[in-house]
Amino acid sequence: DVAVSLTHKHWEFLQPFCRAGLLLRRGDAAAALDILEKTPSANAGLVYHAAFVLASNGRNQAAIRRYRELPGDDPNRLYIDLNLSELYAEEKQPDLALRLAKSAWERTQGESVPAQICYARRLTERGELEKIADVVRLPADPKQADPELLKLWIPAMERRIQSEFNRGDHASARYSCRQLLACSPGNPVATKLLKELDRIAASEAEER
To answer: I need a labelling partner for 2 at 20 to 30 A (CA). Which of 45, 83, 113, 128 fits?
Structure first.
């Protein structure tokens, strides 16, 4: 009797979410999303899943509300904050989006690739490209780098190289050029500046 009672109790709170899943598979997204948005649950896993599905289907505000129901010590806290950062960015709340991304990156000590990507996206959106070069940690073998991370890192390094060159820090600019070329062979910005640095070095050698 206890087993039957527990099974019935579990089914009562699972049933709406199961129904939502069936509706999604049948193509009735609106009805399914309404269920996921409005059905209360004390089960963190179900709430997380509901929030994720809502966000994936464009119901950003509903997804935000569901994510915010989850406790601070939820085992998925990293991904909750990263997903919230993306949602707040889409909802034109850049400061909150950046704060969540930076916090997630700091909590993982910069080791989490998803956190690096999220933080780098927020910095890109704000035009703070040079900071990205310090946020992203590429593997020793560039071929093993996450493509999205590399895509964010390359323009950041291009900006850094140009800044280093403009302020006359040619040693740092040369080092950064070589870093960039190792990960982006033939990169036009690095190639052009490296040639200019070689020209300057040759001219200075002649003068001596």
So the answer is: 45
Angle, helix 147-166 to helix 170-183, in steps of 10 degrees: 160
Please state, in angstroms and rounded to a whole number, the distance separating the CA atoms of residues 188 and 186: 6
Distance CA 41, CA 19 (A): 15
Decide: pTM greater than 0.90: no
> Distance (Å, rounded) from C-alpha 72 to C-alpha 42?
14
CA separation for the pair 147, 151 (Å, rounded)? 6
H runs (alpha helix) in 136-187 = 147-166, 170-183
Distance CA 113, CA 137 (A): 8
Give the number of C-alpha atoms closer than 13 A to the C-alpha of residue 97, restricted to the C-beta side: 21
How many C-beta atoms lie closer than 10 Å to residue 69's C-beta? Answer: 15
The amino acid that residue 113 corresponds to is V
pLDDT tens for 8-66 read: 445 455 676 677 666 667 777 788 888 788 887 878 888 999 999 999 999 999 999 99
Quote the CA–CA distance of 143 and 150 in Å, as a whole number.
10
For 112-151, write each residue's pLDDT tens digit: 999 999 999 999 999 999 899 999 999 888 889 999 999 9
